Amino acid sequence: MNNNELPSRPEIPFPLPRPKDIVLLDGRYTQCIMANSYRIVLTSLDQQEVVEIDSKDLHKYTYVPPTRDQVLAKHLVTQGAMTQKELSLVRWGSEEKQNPHLKGEVTFFGTYTKKDA
After folding, report:
1. CA distances from 106 to 11, 24, 43, 79, 102 (A)
2. Cα Rg for the chain, rounded, in angstroms?
3. DSSP 3-state assignment of 98?
4. Which residue from 17, 32, 39, 92 puts its CA 20 to 30 A from 54's CA?
5. Which helix (H) or strand (E) holds 67?
6. What confidence tier does 5 reach under pLDDT thresholds 50, 70, 90?
7. Phi, then psi, of 64 in degrees rounded to 5
């Protein structure tokens, strides 16, 4: 490998979230800041914690995609899986102040649960 090449990465075992996607990580709602073949960066909805998962560690997690009736944040609230307070902490973008209902349109990516050691 020369200095211009990135190190190879293991194959990613499941799809990656996109920025702004909501991810249920070990029972807590987070929002994706960034995801690529090297790492996933998530922040808790209250922005108190940032979690980075290196792609080589994804095999330590189980991924469960959302059901068809849980594709958007508003679906989670309607079903009682997410509180209205949690929804209010979702970040959409600069227009969220004028259109707070857009937070309900954020995609729920699915669930990552760390496997038992």
Report:
1. 27, 13, 15, 16, 7
2. 15
3. coil
4. 92
5. none
6. low
7. -120, 115
Tokens found for residue 19: 């920025």
| 40 and 17 Cβ atoms separated by less than 8 Å | yes
| Cβ contact 72:108 at 8 Å | yes
What would the 3-class secondary structure string for 5-36 be? CCCCCCCCCCCCCCCCCEEEECCEEEEEEEEC
Starting at the edge strand found earlier in the chain, the sheet holding 22-25 runs 50-54, 39-44, 28-35, 22-25, 108-114, 61-64
Phi/psi of residue 80, nearest 5 degrees: 80, 10
Tokens, residue 38: 């090297």
How much is the average pLDDT of 37-57?
Answer: 91
How many residues are given for the chain? 117
Residue with tokens 């075992």: 13
